[in-house]
Amino acid sequence: MSGADRPGGFLPGRHGIDAYGNGGFRFGDMSHRGSILLLPSGVHAWGVERADAIDAASLAPVLAEREGIELLLVGTGADIVFLPDALRQRLKAAGIGLDAMQTGAAARTYNILAAENRKVAAALIAVS
């Protein structure tokens, strides 16, 4: 994340997505190249580059903050990719709903739900 020195690619607080594309995102007067997680604790760099790499390990930070999350929006890139049922069931067992969609739609939906103070998180794969 540029704009400030953030160990581990972390910006505390809730931030809306101002822009996306060109392989990254703009939020909180900063930009980040690569995928991101938007969690109750803040914005985190996310090492996932393709939807088929999304698994329980890559979503461990989401599960760690499950008390503050009712819905996880997953932006799967330029195309909608359905996530494995086992992953959906794992999130459901943790009390988290899951909705997968294109990254742009997920970013816009996140902004709306976050503005309504909903318990929403997002896992967004960067798009070109």
TrEMBL record:
PANTHER family: NADH DEHYDROGENASE [UBIQUINONE] 1 ALPHA SUBCOMPLEX ASSEMBLY FACTOR 3 (PTHR21192:SF2), NUCLEAR PROTEIN E3-3 (PTHR21192). This is Mth938-like domain-containing protein. It comes from Methylorubrum suomiense. The lineage of its organism: Bacteria, Pseudomonadati, Pseudomonadota, Alphaproteobacteria, Hyphomicrobiales.
